């Protein structure tokens, strides 16, 4: 009985997803795209014009942006042959927005109305992304989702030619069940999924009764909230090579899910969140990485010169006394065996987000006495100030591609 019900749900979901894509007749998707790539393929984006061109050159055909401040992307995307899932920012109650404040609600609605009217006929526009994880930190997500649904209805009334997307976090199965019938004005359901959850998210949504087309609105490797931790609490970040393998496997898996109509790896750009490298697919200077290589290959774009491969990293110990000598190393190779250059730097551990904000200050670089440094090894003197630190390792090849890793350590 259960097997038959599950199978029928899957068939219905697949049929609805296929019908939805056909009805949209998306100009972003050419007729000769191979099976498994005929979806919204691109990335969540936070960069500049140069970064957007790199995204297009990598084989992306759709870009997801988060807010009205990214409206410039529409014109640039048109020039580059990209389509845009245009974000409409919906303020978060956890950051002080009052869902029961008529003035706040009216002002937000008017801003969205004006923006949609201004941009609804833009040739690069593909869909409207109404909000992003508005329900975070709410004991009951329904009031926040009800407002997203109301705003999505307004958007649909102003622009029936483009679908609406609501985006939620991958939270509890109970919350996923609440999504099944809460928001009829959202044509697509977007879920931000990280780590191993992405391999189960479609089955969980189907079990919850969700039959809408699904967009993985943020796809990321193991997040800092999921990762293993050192005894003092510092999360252990995967290397760029490990992240690239994750993106390869996750994109391959999602390409075989008919209910999934779009996947947006997170984040095409650089972002300080726990570290300066955890979630950025690019380095802060715009350098490409093994993660961007993995995306290009998944998008059908050959990568003749791969980013450096990290085979291992290590540090002499986890804890050191102030002023003690520290040694560390990395085992890495370039795609053609040519010499790599390595930057070693020590940063203080991040203190996290500011109160009432999603902004996370960049930790200070800590000056240390370097005793020896080459492409594979480093020896330096531990900081005099006790506390948690990270040794960041950035390797570059002759083509400017980069690989990253870091090693948390404690001084006490």
From TrEMBL:
Q: Which InterPro entries match?
A: GH (IPR017853), Glyco_hydro_2_cat (IPR006103)
Q: Which Gene3D superfamilies does this one have?
A: Glycosidases
The answer to whether the entry has keyword Transmembrane helix is no
Molecular function GO labels: hydrolase activity, hydrolyzing O-glycosyl compounds
Q: Which UniProt keywords apply?
A: Signal
Point out the signal peptide segment.
1-30
Q: Where is the Glycoside hydrolase family 2 catalytic domain?
A: 67-218
GO biological processes: carbohydrate metabolic process
Query: What's this protein's name?
Result: Glycoside hydrolase family 2 catalytic domain-containing protein
What is the organism field in this record?
Answer: Aromatoleum aromaticum (strain DSM 19018 / LMG 30748 / EbN1)
């Amino acid at each position: 009985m259960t097997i038959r019900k599950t199978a029928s749900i899957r068939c219905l979901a697949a049929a609805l997803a296929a019908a939805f894509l056909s009805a949209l007749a998306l100009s972003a998707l050419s007729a000769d795209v191979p099976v498994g790539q005929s979806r919204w393929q691109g990335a969540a984006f936070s960069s500049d014009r140069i970064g957007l061109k790199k995204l297009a050159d990598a084989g992306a055909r759709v870009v997801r942006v988060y807010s009205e401040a990214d409206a410039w992307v529409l014109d640039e995307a048109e020039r580059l042959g990209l389509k845009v899932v245009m974000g409409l920012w919906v303020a978060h109650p956890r950051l002080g927005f009052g869902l029961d404040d008529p003035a706040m609600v009216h002002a937000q609605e008017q801003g969205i109305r004006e923006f949609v009217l201004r941009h609804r006929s833009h040739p690069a526009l593909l869909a409207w992304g109404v909000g992003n994880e508005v329900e975070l930190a709410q004991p009951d997500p329904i009031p926040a989702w009800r407002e997203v649904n109301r705003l999505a209805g307004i958007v649909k009334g102003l622009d029936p030619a483009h679908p609406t997307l609501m985006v939620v976090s991958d939270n509890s199965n109970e919350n996923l069940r609440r999504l099944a019938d809460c928001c009829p004005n959202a044509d697509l359901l977007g879920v931000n999924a990280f780590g191993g959850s992405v391999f189960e998210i479609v089955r969980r949504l189907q079990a919850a009764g969700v039959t809408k087309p699904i967009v993985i609105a943020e796809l990321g490797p193991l997040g800092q909230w999921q990762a293993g931790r050192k005894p003092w609490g510092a999360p252990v970040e995967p290397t760029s090579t490990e992240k690239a393998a994750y993106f390869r496997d996750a994109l391959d898996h999602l390409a075989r899910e008919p209910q999934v109509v779009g996947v947006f790896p997170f984040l095409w750009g650089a972002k300080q969140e726990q570290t300066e490298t955890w979630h950025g697919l690019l380095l802060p200077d715009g350098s490409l990485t093994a993660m961007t290589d993995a995306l290009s290959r998944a998008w059908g774009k050959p990568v003749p010169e791969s980013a450096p491969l990290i085979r291992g990293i290590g540090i002499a110990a986890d804890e050191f006394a102030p002023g003690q000598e520290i040694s560390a190393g990395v085992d890495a190779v370039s795609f053609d065996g040519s010499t790599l250059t390595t930057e070693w730097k020590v940063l203080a551990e991040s203190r996290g987000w500011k109160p009432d904000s999603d902004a996370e200050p960049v930790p200070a670089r800590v000056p240390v006495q370097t005793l020896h440094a080459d492409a594979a090894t480093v020896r330096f003197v531990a900081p005099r100030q006790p506390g948690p630190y990270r040794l960041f390792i950035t390797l570059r090849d002759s083509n400017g591609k980069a690989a990253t890793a870091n090693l948390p350590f404690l001084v006490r």
